[in-house]
Design a protein that fits this description.
394 residues, alpha/beta, Aspartate Aminotransferase, domain 1, Aspartate Aminotransferase, domain 2, 2 domains, seven-stranded mixed beta sheet, four-stranded mixed beta sheet, 17 strands, 19% strand
Length: 394
Amino acid sequence: MIPSVLPTYNRAPLAFVKGEGSWLTSEDGTRYLDVGAGIAVNALGHAHPALVEALTAQAQNLWHVSNLYEIPNQQALADLLVDQTFADSVFFTNSGTESCELAVKMARKYWHDKGQPERTDIVTFSGSFHGRSSAGIAAAGSEKMTKGFGPLLPGFIHLPWGDHDAFYNAIGETVAAILIEPVQGEGGIVPLPDQCLKGLRDLCDETGILLILDEVQCGMGRTGRLFAHEWAGITPDIMMVAKGIGAGFPLGAVLATEDAASGMTPGTHGSTFGGNPLGCAVGLAATKIISEPAFLDEVNRKAGLLRQKLEGLVAAHPDVFDRVRGSGLMLGLVCKVPNTDVVKAGYARHLLTVPAADNTVRLLPPLTITDTEIAEAVTRLDQAASDLAQDAAV
């Protein structure tokens, strides 16, 4: 008999009733140190006072009106994002998946309005993840994502990660855009080297192809800059955002230059809930905090501390861990044992981490995590690794 909640998740046997900062409390009162942050969503931790205040104040006044009318919080958040980024215009969504849908539509509409409707292909890369909608799974292209869901949305060219020859051979007259994550999240915390991102930007400038960046997981301060592409000193034409922008409230966005967004005129796209007063009240409060230079400086400092401690952890447990990779507070432990075993061993030590592809464990703590909590997280990972080694010896 099928359960009342559609069984599409392999859930851990844990349920939480309260959160505060970097900690979650389960139904039985046990406190867990959360270094997964809802898969990089709770950028400011749980129940951050500024976000609680913003949500409560808005909820007492107005929840929803639809995009038939002006929404002051939406305008304020759009203005802030335009001021802080490359973008000239912003469309608000409810999720990264919806942001992907619009990014694909925007790129194709751009070329249609330029008189080149044959330019519909979007180049994507192995290991990518762009959501679970029809466009998202077609963009990723992996069997795991697409099996059983055909016919797939056409117009995507899938290339091996890091294969430069295949990439340049694929750039033809039907290509509309390149879609890539500056740091692959679901793919196993795999950063794209700065020089490669610069090369993509140069190629797009030479050919007119649009560069779409998926910063759903790696954006909003996660790597120590407001957005990860800033480290390479380049800007995209279109960027997908979600997760951390709402810091726990469902919110996403597509940021774009005026040129890239030129085809999106009234009636070409819409959303019932996207950019509603509640979401934008929280998003505005979160973005104001995260975009502060002093806040981002602290993220970088704490990222260095965490990485240093994780390198020591790998050295102490060479039979469990292979290496550390990633950027900022978006780090992955590549494992020599099944990564799900490491995650489960962490549960036993009251530590929450997130599995990813390539046998990797993701560490995506709140950007507000303290030095003491960083030390505690690594201690618990050390204990979990020792537990695994002990079990293997029995």
